[in-house]
Design goal:
The complex is a heterotetramer of chains A (147), B (97), C (198) and D (115).
Chain B: H1 2-15, H2 17-25, H3 29-54, H4 57-96
Helix pairs in contact in B: 1-3, 2-3, 3-4
Chain C: H1 2-23, H2 29-45, H3 47-51, H4 55-66, H5 76-102, E1 111-116, H6 122-134, E2 138-144, E3 147-152, H7 159-162, H8 165-171, E4 188-190
Antiparallel strand pairs in C: 1-3, 1-4, 2-3
Chain D: H1 3-31, H2 35-61, H3 65-94, H4 102-114
Helix pairs in contact in D: 1-2, 2-3
Classes of the chains: A mainly alpha (147), B mainly alpha (97), C alpha+beta (198), D mainly alpha (115).
Chain lengths: 147, 97, 198, 115
């Protein structure tokens, strides 16, 4: 069914570009404190890279990249990372998301612990945004034979 | 040199309004999307020049790249929707014959 | 086949890591290790998709088996010649469009052309399609298997396709001495909506 | 006339030429008669315009990380712009948008003259 709509130019170009867009998204997540961006923007770009393959090659083929049910699970997992980091700080005797206390478990200085804490939170937010956006796309298209 | 880029950004932001006419008046939906794409291309250039004016080009380049990616994906999505619409119309026409 | 796939993955990894190094302006242990991790993650994420053969690629594979030849691979050296040539073509194209657009009478005479090429695989067809879009006065409307549908703005702009220089240039990216890529009898030009099979 | 002046002059010429081609693309979008001919204006003039402006900025920046990133943008636009144009043209073709032809136009005007 998808072969009817297949546009070889769009399909091939998106397959070539998708990994690079994904890497750019990871760059946005990891460099959140030097340049604009951070978890949310990076997560959106990651979702965009995945949706590009879904749009161009058809939903069936794109299951090879990320399966249908995985989006929701990844979304929950991202939120878990975010809250896990926050509650870890609470357990260590500080406030919610009080990163500097992470230095008690991680073998780094207080400043570096702050750095790592922010990184964990941003990775969590990125995964959550990506998973949920892909899940929304898949749920909207459920049962559509042309997808 | 600093002033020149300010003038250039003003000129570019005036140019952006030209394709807007096609977006508002375009007889078919494809014309409107084409106009929107043209606006996006000019906006990318404008962002870069403004980055040079503010002396933070490294930051604005990232924004431009993100903008380019999202513009591309948006155009592809709409094009695919219209494409499938056309296919469905065609099939209905054949059935009537 | 497995070896080629493995080598391809390594090349892709190096490309992705180079892209990361270009993007990231920070060259310390933390950021470079993040880059290595990210590139590896992207490669692993796309592994299954890259192993998959798409519809058109299956057709190409079947044809390659029929004609009993090795699958074609792009020649990097030729690409280095092709890209500047293409940029020059874009410059010429834009001047032509500018001349037409700014001319008070707008001397355009559009035409739809259909033709078939003997290009070896989908990649080559996609390169030709995008090159046609970028070169003077022509735009690829559709590619169906081997058949191209091209919209041309003026009579003068058809020459690049009619004399076969552009398709031959693309075919040279894959083979040293390509055979006849385009036959003149195959080109159909329609300049009217009446009687066309549109 | 030292080197810096020359580079500045080159930047100004390139960016101004780029802005000119962006303007030509927009004017073409307004003046040309139908969708397919309008794609010619955006597909080519805009691509060259953005390439020229970015080349000017690269000369302004010299050899640095920023220049490399700008080159990435050029490559990205050079790849995606024709692709998006083709996707739209294909969609229009499947929507049965009739192309504008010179002959059809002439026939119509002849009919009007007869009437």
């Amino acid at each position: 069914m998808t072969t009817d709509f297949e546009n070889p130019i769009v399909s091939l170009v998106s397959r070539v570009l998708s990994p690079f867009i994904m890497l750019f998204a990871l760059y946005v997540i990891f460099h959140g404190h030097y340049s604009p961006g951070g978890g949310f923007q990076g997560g959106t770009m990651l979702a965009a890279a995945i949706l590009l393959v879904r749009l161009s090659s058809g939903s069936e083929v794109a299951q090879l990249q990320l399966k249908r049910g995985v989006g929701t699970i990844l979304g929950s997992f991202g939120v878990l990372i975010y809250f896990g980091t926050g509650f870890l700080c609470l357990l260590l005797g500080g406030k919610f998301l009080d990163y500097e206390l992470l230095a008690r478990i991680l073998p780094v200085s207080k400043v570096m612990a702050h750095n790592w804490g922010i990184l964990f939170v941003e990775i969590g937010v990125g995964i959550a945004v990506m998973g949920l956006l892909v899940a929304i796309y898949d749920d909207l298209l459920e049962g559509d034979p042309d997808a | 040199m600093g002033n020149y880029f300010i003038y250039l950004s003003v000129v570019l932001s005036i140019i952006i309004f030209v394709p807007l006419y096609r977006v508002l008046a375009g007889p078919t939906i494809c014309d409107r999307i084409l106009g929107a794409g043209a606006i996006a291309t000019k906006t990318m250039v404008l962002i870069l020049v403004i980055g040079l004016v503010f002396n933070r080009l490294d930051m604005f380049i990232d924004i431009t790249l993100a903008y380019a990616v999202l513009n591309f994906i948006g155009t592809i999505a709409i094009a695919k929707y219209l494409d499938i619409l056309g296919f469905k119309k065609e099939k209905r026409g054949y059935k009537k014959k | 086949m497995k070896q080629i796939f493995f080598l391809n993955s390594i090349t892709k990894f190096i490309l992705l890591f180079g892209f990361w190094l270009l993007l990231s302006g920070h060259y310390d242990v933390q950021h470079i290790s993040m880059g290595l991790f990210s590139s590896l993650f992207v490669i692993l994420f796309n592994l299954k998709l890259r192993k998959h053969y798409f519809y058109r690629e299956k057709l190409d594979e079947a044809r390659a088996k029929l004609e009993d030849v090795q699958p074609y691979r792009i020649r990097i050296g030729r690409l280095l010649y092709y890209l500047p040539w293409l940029v020059w073509q874009i410059v010429v194209a834009s001047f032509q469009v500018a001349k037409v657009v700014l001319h008070p009478k707008m001397p355009i005479d559009p035409a739809l052309m259909r033709f078939k090429t003997g290009l070896p695989n989908t990649e080559a067809r996609v390169i030709l399609g995008n090159s046609i879009t970028l070169t003077p006065g022509t735009i690829t409307v559709q590619i169906e298997d081997d058949e191209f549908l091209v919209h041309a703005l003026m009579d003068a702009s058809q020459s690049g396709i009619l004399d076969g220089s552009l398709p031959t240039e693309v075919a040279k990216l894959y083979e040293k001495k390509p055979g006849q890529v385009l036959r003149k009898e195959d080109i159909k030009i329609s300049k009217s909506n009446k009687g066309a099979e549109v | 006339m030292d080197l810096q002046h020359l580079l500045n002059l080159l930047t100004i010429i390139l960016t101004a030429a780029g802005a000119f081609f962006l303007l030509v693309g927009s004017v073409g979008l307004l003046r040309l008669p139908d969708f397919y001919t309008r794609t010619h204006a955006t597909g080519k003039a805009d691509t060259l315009g953005i390439m020229l402006v970015i080349t000017g900025l690269i000369i302004n920046q010299g050899i640095s990380v920023n220049s490399a990133k700008l080159l990435i943008i050029v490559a990205f636009v050079g790849l995606t712009n024709p692709t998006a144009t083709n996707a739209l043209a294909r969609a229009a073709y499947h929507l049965r948008l009739k192309p504008w032809f010179k002959k059809d136009k002439q026939k119509k005007s002849e009919k009007k003259e007869k009437e």
